[in-house]
Description:
The chain folds into two domains: 1-35, no CATH class; 37-108, no CATH class. Helix content is 26%, strand content 30%. It contains four helices and four strands, in the order αααββββα. The chain has a four-stranded antiparallel sheet. A hairpin with a 2-residue loop joins β2 and β3 (83-90). The model has no long low-confidence stretch (mean pLDDT 81).
Amino acid sequence: MQVATTEVGGNSYAEPAPCNVAWSLESALNRTKNLASVTAKPMAVTATQTELAGKRPICARVEWKSKSGHFLSIKGHYQVNGVDILVLTDPIYAESTMSALDLVNGAY
Length: 108
């Protein structure tokens, strides 16, 4: 909460900044020194597996057709019948799973 409050302009825990506001994930991750890299294209499944095997969750921006977006994290990967499945965590929708292909193709 402190990082979010500092990022979007709140001044204390007693008066936190409003929640669910448009903001840059890159800025917050820079503040906490947790930003490794930024890419504008979806990661290859092999790169996703490497990051997750190294205990580095992946933050992702989902862009909807309206061009608005939402951030979530990818914290796991497994396969079912040859289909790559991602374990997603989301501040609104909690934890879910989705095929990597569906996520890349806008099904979220």
